[in-house]
Amino acid sequence: MKPSAPHAPYPRLVGDIGGTNARFGWIASAPAPGEEPLISDVHTLPTADHAQLADAARAYLARIGRGQPGSMAFGIANPITGDEVRMTNHHWSFSLSGLQTELGLQRLVVINDFTALALALPSLKAHDIRQLGGGMARAQAPIALLGAGTGLGVSGLIHSAAGWTALAGEGGHVTLAATDDREAAVLEQMRRAFGHVSAERALSGSGLVNLYNAVCHLHAAAAQPLSPADVTQRALDGSDAACVEAVEHFCAFLGNVAGNLALTLGSLGGVYLGGGIVPRLGAFFDRSKFRQRFESKGRFESYLAAIPVFVIDASVSPALAGAARALGED
Question: Is position 20 annotated in a ligand binding site?
């Protein structure tokens, strides 16, 4: 992949900033020609432990005992539309120019976290992904990306003579649709709570809780004060029928949204699922209605049946590599 911009000095600090965790890595020096940058000293810091992003970055540097980086790039779970950034799913807010000055950086690049993840997709290794249905990915065809974590990220890759271009958008906030009466009833409960029910209202950590609460209401049962991890664990061990149904709805809704995205982008190069929730679901997700709903698009069922879906399950956040690509090469 051709990097987007040159002349970022080393050493470089790269980050993947979500609503719950901030992941940082260190690039000490330029890679050899044709090689990927070596990202070392990868650490995850809870965002709640730090007042602002600059504080988290300084805490990371203190932890690894490194000096001043020349450049920094990070993907953040937020649209980047100007100098001021206010996170959607966390309280951090900052000025990009102010952050660059505060951290003493010669160059700062900030992109959406799923744009960063999209930039890393072509370099993912076989052990970082597992395929869930479909056939072979078509070379240089558009690629779709979405993933549920603290929020729902959406991006994609389009290939041209200049290489791959990552899309920046907010597709997680499209309106969520029902495909049967039960889903319609679940969404009606959520509409009463939120008005507009975006895909993220169901396909995220808080979305799991929203689905659980809606299912409990439909069963005329009292909802317990569960966390997203509680809902997931009780579904996986089968100890709570409402949690099982909630996670089943999660998988089905995700399949519907992923299929819509694949049709929109014409993503014959494959659909990639990022975020932290799907990998944790494991075999439950594989047995779910995800693939059925992904393909169930009427006259285009056979078109979607050929598209491979890949679950990203990497030990180190690939978005760090995407942020490194955004900095470019000297």
Answer: yes
